[in-house]
Amino acid sequence: MTESPRPNGAYGSPAPVNPEWPPPPAYAPSPQPAQEPTQEPAPRPAKKRKRARGPAALLAAVAIVAAAVGGGTAYGIQELAGGDTAAAGSTSTTVVPSSRKGTVAGVAEAVTPSIVEINATSNAGSSTGSGVIITSDGEIVTNNHVVSGATSIEVRTSDGTTYAAETVGTDSGKDLALIKLRDASGLQAATLGDSDGVQVGDQVVAIGSPEGLTGTVTSGIVSALDRDVTVSTDEGQGQQQRQQGGGWPFEYGGQEFNGDTGGSTTTYQAIQTDASLNPGNSGGALIDMNGHVIGVNSAMYSSSGSGSSSSDAGSVGLGFAIPIDTVTSDLPALRSGSTT
C-alpha cells in the first residue's frame, strides 16, 4: 500500500533485491568523511576535562598570589617598623590620643614626659637648657651649647625626678650633643618624625624650659625651611657673659640666640618657626600635631640692642630648630663618643 506501482514490474518483487547492492556503494564512501568530523569532538572530552581542572588551577594561582601579597605586606611592615624605630613610629605609632589629635593640648600631654630640663655647670658658670629623651634608659639629645664645657650636668624630668648625667658625644658644627642619665630606666622616649616631610605653614608645638620654667608649651607654624642660623662653638661663652653682667647673654653680631656666643661660630640650616622660643628652650622639641619630634630648638632672634638687659629681651616670633633628620643622621657618631 505504501509502494508506488511500477510500470514494468521489474521491481515488483522485493525478494530478489539484495540490500547490499545500491546502498553500500552509495553510502559506503560517505562514512569515512562523516566519521572524521565526528572524531573532532573526540578532544571535547579532553577539553571538558581541562575545564574541570581549571578551577583547581585557578585556586592554586590565587593561593600563590595571596602568598606573594602576604609576604610583601609583611616585608613592608618590617621596612616601616624597622628603618625608623624612633622615627618608625611616625607612620605606625599613635602618639597623641585619637580623641585629641590635632590639638596643642593633646600634643603637650603626649610629649611633655619626653622633655627634660638640663642644668649644666662649668668653670665659667651655669646654664639652663632643655633636652629630648630618645631611649627609655636615658639617652637625651640637646644642643652642644647647652652642655659645652660642663663639669657636671643635672637633669630633671617632667615628674620632678632628678638625675646626674654625663656627656656621651658632641658635634659643635651642628650644635648637637648626646648625654646619658645615670641609673635611669622606664623613661618615655619621644617619637622622632621626618623633617623632610615638613612644609611651610604646618602647625607645630614647642616644649622646653625657658628661663628655668620647666615644661613650658608654646605653639605656632613652620615659617620657613633651610634658614641659615649661626651660633657659637666657644665653650662657656654664654656663662661668661652672664657672670660679667653685660647685655643679653646670647647676643652675637646684633642677633640674640638661644645659646652661648663667642668668637668661634658655626652655621647650619634650620626650620624657622613663630612658636615662642626664649633662653632655656635650647635643646627642647619642636613637634608636629601628631606628636612626632621634627626638630631640636636651638636659637632665636631678637631685635633688642646690645644694651638691653635679659629682662627686656624676648621672643619676636623668629625661632629656629635643627631638623630631626640632621639629628638622627648624627646619632651614630654621637653615640660613638665623637667630640667634634
UniProtKB/TrEMBL annotation:
Q: Report TM segments.
A: 56-77
Instruction: Supply the InterPro entries for this chain.
Output: Chloro_Bact_Ser_Proteases (IPR051201), Peptidase_S1_PA (IPR009003), Peptidase_S1_PA_chymotrypsin (IPR043504), Peptidase_S1C (IPR001940)
* Lineage top rank: taxon: Bacteria
GO molecular function terms attached to this record: peptidase activity
Class in the EC hierarchy, top level: hydrolase
- Give the species: Streptomyces heliomycini
Q: Which Pfam families does the record match to this protein?
A: Trypsin_2
Give EC number(s), comma-separated. 3.4.21.-
What sections of the sequence does the record tag as coiled-coil? none
Stretches for region Disordered? 1-53, 230-266
Q: What lineage, starting at the top, does this entry show?
A: Bacteria, Bacillati, Actinomycetota, Actinomycetes, Kitasatosporales
Per the record, the similarity remark reads: Belongs to the peptidase S1C family.
Q: A single GO BP annotation from the record?
A: proteolysis
Record keywords: Hydrolase, Membrane, Protease, Transmembrane, Transmembrane helix
Q: Name it.
A: S1C family serine protease
Q: Where is the composition biased (Pro residues)?
A: 16-44
